[in-house]
Design goal:
The radius of gyration is 17 Å and the shape is elongated. The termini are far apart. Helices cover 3% and strands 41% of the residues. It contains one helix and eight strands, in the order αββββββββ. A hairpin with a 2-residue loop joins strand 6 and strand 7. Strands 3, 4, 6, 7 and 8 form a five-stranded antiparallel sheet that branches. It has a three-stranded antiparallel sheet with strand order 1-2-5, with no helix packed on it.
Length: 116
């Protein structure tokens, strides 16, 4: 219905937490990220919604193994199960919201030991 009421350049799109179709803005930062052990080398990553977010990119680094963070998933939801991790390995994880304008700032980075 907003498309019928607002022009593609109307700045009021952002009042609804949406991008201005004619001039999209980057999403805001995801402010909360948690990791919860699920056992068997799995960790549940959950994060908060960011304004203007259309999707996310989840990044993982195995400390002492990887030299850089690797984009391991692009979930549309606010959670993702990391699978195939070795229990006892230390991992660092962060997430970025993205939309048509690009990637927003990184969330806080969480570092923890993978549960058994």
């Amino acid at each position: 219905e907003l498309r019928d009421l607002l022009t593609p350049a109307d700045p009021r799109w952002e009042l609804f937490g949406l991008n201005i179709p004619a001039n999209p803005s980057l999403p805001e930062a995801i402010t909360s990220l948690t990791l919860t052990a699920l056992g068997d080398g799995q960790e549940l990553a959950e994060w908060s919604y960011a304004v203007r977010m259309e999707g996310t990119r989840l990044f993982l680094k195995k400390v002492g193994i990887d030299t850089e963070f690797i984009n391991v998933a692009d979930p549309k939801d606010l959670d993702h199960v990391l699978k195939g991790l070795t229990p006892g390995t230390t991992i660092s994880v962060f997430v970025r919201a993205h939309n048509a304008a690009g990637d927003g700032p990184a969330s806080p980075t969480i570092t923890k030991v993978v549960g058994a």
